[in-house]
Design a protein that fits this description.
It contains 15 helices and no strands. By secondary structure, it is mostly helical. The protein has one domain. The longest helix has 31 residues.
Length: 282
């Protein structure tokens, strides 16, 4: 019984405690390092994990009042944990100490900016979506795509055309994921008067927009490989389109199935797995 309870706790902590998005952030960094041939070290991966763990745990903690409408299980789990503010504080301090010790001044500055933007997302930036449609989607996707440039800045590499392509690709993928998660959060976002794409256009049209964005990403990737700007290893990224079309088609016909929203949320992890398997086989 205790073993079962332990595994249940680990599962809930991973899904609801902010760890899943922290792992997604680490996955994007590792993905970019493989595609762009940049050697990453444990210190940078730990910094990224701690930063995004703090950001998403804080976001989930601050949004509990509205999330109860669309994510009751997460709210119920988080309410039991009285140490969330302490965990956020420790994660932020630990990431800053690691940045100070291992990173450059530029790396420390940019890392601190990401932390500030993330922690103030719920209180400040998210609310701008009340006046500017889809602002939070652009904001979140932009922060995640900055990780590609941050990788180069941390290790003092110069940007290349491939760097920009990977950053744009990540931006599109996270933008798509955010729209899907907004479909799930329509009730809570409507209560907050946020002008998200699903609220403005409805579920069916939002899914069509996602499909078009998927096609745009496919064409962008194909164009980069065709011109020779991207190496053949980028062909492995085409697998993500099959993966995303799978959960998108499922969400078309199944109402409020958290499993398929979960599949969307972990897409960066799945994408990294595709690339690792492809590299191993090739």
């Amino acid at each position: 019984m205790r073993i079962r309870q332990f595994f249940k706790f680990v599962k809930n902590e991973f899904i609801y405690g902010g760890h899943i998005f922290a792992l997604c952030a680490v996955s994007i960094v590792l993905l970019a390092s493989i595609l762009l041939d940049v050697l990453v070290t444990i210190d940078f991966l730990a910094i990224i994990y701690l930063i995004f763990y703090a950001i998403y745990l804080n976001d989930h903690f601050k949004d509990m009042k509205t999330d109860v409408l669309t994510n009751t299980q997460r709210v119920t789990y988080l309410k039991k944990n009285k140490k969330i503010p302490l965990l956020i504080f420790i994660s932020v301090v630990a990431s800053e100490l690691l940045l100070f010790y291992f990173g450059s001044i530029t790396g420390l500055f940019l890392g601190s900016v990401i932390i500030i933007l993330g922690l103030f997302y719920s209180k400040c930036f998210k609310k701008i979506t009340r006046r500017i449609a889809a602002f939070k989607n652009f904001f979140v996707a932009l922060v995640w795509s900055v990780l590609v440039f941050y990788l180069f800045i941390y290790y003092s590499y110069f940007f290349t055309y491939e760097t920009i392509f990977v950053a744009v690709f990540i931006f599109l993928r996270i933008f798509i994921i955010q729209i899907l998660l907004d479909i799930r959060d329509i009730k809570s976002d409507r209560k907050e008067k946020l002008l998200t794409i699903p609220i403005l256009f409805g579920k069916e049209t939002s899914i069509k927009i996602i499909v078009y964005l998927n096609i745009l990403g496919f064409l962008l990737l194909f164009y980069g490989i065709y011109l020779g700007i991207l190496s053949n290893v980028f062909l492995l990224l085409f697998l993500v389109f099959l993966y995303s079309f799978y959960y998108i088609n499922k969400l078309k016909s199944i109402e409020n199935n958290n499993m398929f929203y979960f599949l969307a949320a972990i897409e960066p992890i799945v994408l990294l797995i595709f690339v690792l398997i492809g590299n191993f086989l090739l």
